[in-house]
């Protein structure tokens, strides 16, 4: 976990006037007492660094700084040290409980340096209005989060805002499959050549998997569903992993032995593009759906639906079977994602292969803000089939199955 060199970690600088609660916010975000907190203004004198894995961004280093409204000789040295932190900051957090010239200046500095900024309007437990939030919004701040470090309020939202504000190039590049296998592992990719696969080519995701397996020194057997049984019979040993489309997951499971690892391309996408834990948790909401509930099926691409379309036919059928009745199902496609999500009991998103990770994360965040569970196609299908545990087994980040590369 700590192997990533500091230079490759996203540097998150925490700034603000003395006593605003910078160190308290850091401690709350990392869930540890890494920085000394006290009511004495000027407690933090030297920058305090903390390296960690911050989901879903990846490896980061937080830098807690000295408040820079200090006065006097010692104050100037601190200001100098804090300014040096600004120079290496790639994402800034401004902690404030009172809007002053200092906040305006910091916004201007970050803007000039093109450093994204998240504002923690802190000590909300002591404030009885939202004037700090208002002033931050008026100053053009994009991410303004109300927090109380002492009551642990708004800390999850602050973490989410950090992920949304992180420039795409700093987001951790999660492999699709490479860290689920070891060199010389044999993986079967059950690859559909259906009507939706581009003519003469394979879907990007399958190509991506093949390349990662080759780079990893593993090997891939690529078959269509119709040849899988024969391929299995001809192999001299069981494969280390099988990946197939969600729609045939149950068929594949019935063809293989119970200890063979198997998952779906869509579940790999939940890790690759989404917030895996959130999407897995979201599938549980299927169990509490009731007849007549509103469900949103969101597709990232605007393909022309053909035949037994997964989003329009197969998933609705599975859900309606689960609730033993009819549901109100809306389907959206492309960038057309509803702003008002409140009426939905569940959102089921496609794998989002045409989106970058940030776009998918921002949709997950919108669902979170609206308190609507969100899952993806593959996770939902495996759940409805009663096979989610099996499908997740190969991808759960335990020390035995996710290997560092
Ligand atoms: N009520 C309340 N108190 C807070 C909150 N956050 C921090 N504090 C208190 O504010 C005081 C200053 O907190 P610190 O975290 O040390 O502030 P800082 O910004 O790191 O201060 P310096 O290091 O001196 O610049 C401490 O007494 C904290 O307990 C909050 O959200 N609510
Ligand atoms: Mg401090």
Please explain how this structure is put together.
- The relative contact order is 0.10.
- The protein has 405 residues and is an alpha/beta fold.
- The mean pLDDT is 89.
- It has 14 helices and 14 strands.
- Helix 11 (310-323) runs parallel beside helix 13 (377-384).
- The strands form three sheets. It has a six-stranded mixed beta sheet, sandwiched between helices. Strands 8-7-9-10 form a four-stranded parallel beta sheet, with helices on both faces.
- Strand 4, helix 3 (101-112) and strand 5 form a beta-alpha-beta unit.
- The protein has three domains: 6-170, P-loop containing nucleotide triphosphate hydrolases (Rossmann fold, 3-Layer(aba) Sandwich), CATH 3.40.50; 178-268, Rossmann fold (3-Layer(aba) Sandwich); 281-384, Rossmann fold, CATH 3.40.50.11410.
- The structure holds guanosine-5'-triphosphate and magnesium ion.
- Magnesium ion binds at residues 22-23, 35, 43-44, 64.
Describe what is shown at a glance.
The chain is an alpha/beta fold and 405 residues long. The protein has helices spanning 22-30, 72-88, 101-112, 131-138, 155-165, 204-216, 225-234, 249-255, 265-273, 276-283, 310-323, 357-369, 377-384, 388-392, and strands at 10-15, 48-54, 58-64, 91-96, 117-121, 143-146, 186-190, 219-223, 241-244, 262-264, 294-299, 328-333, 344-349, 374-376. It contains 14 helices and 14 strands.
Give a count of the beta strands, DSSP E runs of length 2 or more: 14
* Annotated CATH homologous superfamily of the largest domain: P-loop containing nucleotide triphosphate hydrolases
- Unreliable stretches covering 5 or more consecutive residues: none
Tally of separate helices:
14
Q: What structural category arises from helix and sheet content?
A: alpha/beta
Which ligands, by name, code or SMILES, are bound? Answer: guanosine-5'-triphosphate, magnesium ion
Radius of gyration, in angstroms, nearest whole number: 24 Å
Whole-number tally of structural domains: 3
How are the strands of the biggest sheet laid out side by side? 2-3-1-4-5-6
State the shape: elongated
Taken in chain order, the helices and strands follow as: EHEEHEHEHEHEHEHEHEHHEHEEHEHH
CATH fold name of the largest domain = Rossmann fold
Strand content bin: 15-25%
